[in-house]
Every structure is written in structure tokens, then in C-alpha cells.
Design a protein that fits this description.
Layout (H helix, E strand, L loop, with lengths): L2 H17 L3 H9 L10 E3 L7 E5 L9 H14 L2 E5 L6 H14 L3 E4 L7 H9 L4 E4 L11 E3 L2 H16 L4 E6 L4 H17 L2 E7 L4 H14 L3 E6 L2 H14 L6 E5 L3 H9 L4 E5 L1 H17 E3 L5 H4 L7 E3 L2 E4 L10
Parallel strand pairs: 2-3, 2-4, 4-5, 5-6, 6-13, 7-8, 7-9, 9-10, 10-11
Antiparallel strand pairs: 1-12, 11-14
Length: 340
Amino acid sequence: MNQVERRSALKLGALAAGLGVGSSVLSACNRASPSSSTGAVVARKAKTGNGEYSEVLCLVSLPYFVDHKLGMDAAGKYFGVKTSFIGPAQFDIAGMISALEGQIAKGVSGLVVVGFDAALKPSINKAIAAGIPTVTVDADVPDSDRLTFLGTSNVTAGHSGGAKLLELMGGKGDVLIITKTGQSNLEERVQGYQSALTRGGARVVQVGNDESDAVKAASLVSDALRRFPNLAGIACVEAAGGTGAATALRETGVKGKVKVISMDRDVATLQAIRDGFIQASVAQKSALMTFEAVALLYQAQTLDLKITKDNKIAKVSPLPSNIDTGIELITAANVDQWSK
């Protein structure tokens, strides 16, 4: 076995272990093709595409997406493949679709798509029809032909944040929720918060749209503080809301009186936790999303897992439909462990 073959075998072993496939099956895989009479469940398959695995998104310069790129880079090094991270700097769905179409035309080996909008569905379906394995991360386009969605269970994330906020508020009080309207993942987090808060006895007095702009979020909070004298909590389902809330509380001098739960782990959020303006933040494992996405795409390119006699005819995907990458709560007690 030469060095390239040895590396390939190690990767096959790692992927098979993750699938729960035993060594006996791998042994069969190494000596049999899918059509062999040995009945092997897994077999190697010829790779397609140009060998590049691309993530396509909007807001590529947003601090939150730094971890997406870290995951892509780490996967590229581990699997020995080229990875790329592309898309418009602004929230520009038309620009993102153009970038996605460009990657399809290049014939990449796999696509990782942040499913910001249902308008991405035709391009995702086009990629699948062209034989390019495609998964969504962070936000889903569930009625597309994508193979897998990897990301946070957003309702669970909102519910966890809501439970923590209730605890901090002593189980009562008025709450402002800050979001960016029109994104399915954020809407699901709002649902989770509303469920946890209202069942626990709190009252959601407003769901405000900050358009992912910390300045607008600060304005929303300042206005809410004037309008709702019993405001006890602020729930932010994306990072700009949290940093904006911290700014407003700093300017109005009500530190600690109104409890804030933010989202994610950007530098400003972590500092606001240290300073006591944000009590906790719901952190996603963003780098894990993209690393595992490339791992699945590499699997789709290199392994033929026989769930049926013929997966293509049966229209059965050999990949999981959904993977929940989980969340963690960042507080003053552990904030330094989340700094980079």
C-alpha cells in the first residue's frame, strides 16, 4: 500500500467508524465492488467533479462566519482536498445565487450552502441534478433536494435561551425579543423563546426587527425601555441584537436590571458578558457544521453505502437527513474558554 492508498484507507476507516460500520465490512469494501456477490454493504466509488468543496453564503465578512471558514479549512487539511468559501459580503441573495451557479458551472465535487432563503432551492436542485452532492448548513431549505442539513436545532436553541432568561428573571416580567425577520432559522429560535417564556409565566411584549444591525438593535432596546417600564429581559436570536442591547444598557445605565441572552460568540458579545451587560449567550458549534459537511460530502464522493439494492432507483440517500450540531451556553463562568 502506497502513501496515497494508506491515507485513503485511514479516511475510509474514520468515516466507517462514524457510520457504525465494522472492520469486517471495510475489509469486504477493500476487496469487492458494489455489484460483488460478497454482499458488501460499503464499497469504494470513483470520485466526480474537480476535487474542490465549496461553501456558498452571504455575509462572508460577518464575524459569526469566521468559524464556518475555520471548519472548511480544517476539513480541507484533514481530507487533503481543496476548499473554498465564497459569496457576497452583504445580505444579497441574488449575489449568492450567482456565486452558487458559478460553482455548479465549475463542476465542484461538493457544495455546502447556507440556506438563507427559499429562493436558493432551484440552484440547489440544479446542483443535485448535475451530480454534485449538496448539503445545507446553519439555515435549511428543507423542501429542496439537498442531501443533509447540518446545524443547530433552532427551536431547541431558542427554548434553551428562554429557559435561562426565565431563570435570571425569577420566572416573571416583560421580555423584548430581537431578531432579523425573514430568516427561517431565526424565526424558529423566536418560536423556541416564545414557547419557553410564555409557558414559564413571562410576557413577550415585542418582537423587534434589527435587520442584523447592532445600531438598530440599540435603538429598539432604548425605545422598549421607555415604553415598557416592567421590561425584565431581552432575548436576542442573533449576535447583532446582543451587542446592540449591551450598548443601549450601557448608555442608559441599567446594567444588571434587565437581563440579556444573546446568540453566538463574537468578540463584542464575549466582552459584554465579561462586563456584565449580557448574562449569557447561546453558542453554536459553527466550525463543526462545516467540517462535518465536508466529511459527508467526501463520504458521498468516496463511499457507496448500500442501504437498498440500488439507492438511486429507490431514491434513498445514503446520508442522514438532519444532523443537530448542538449548542452551549456561554456565561461569565466560562467566557474566557470561548475567546480565541
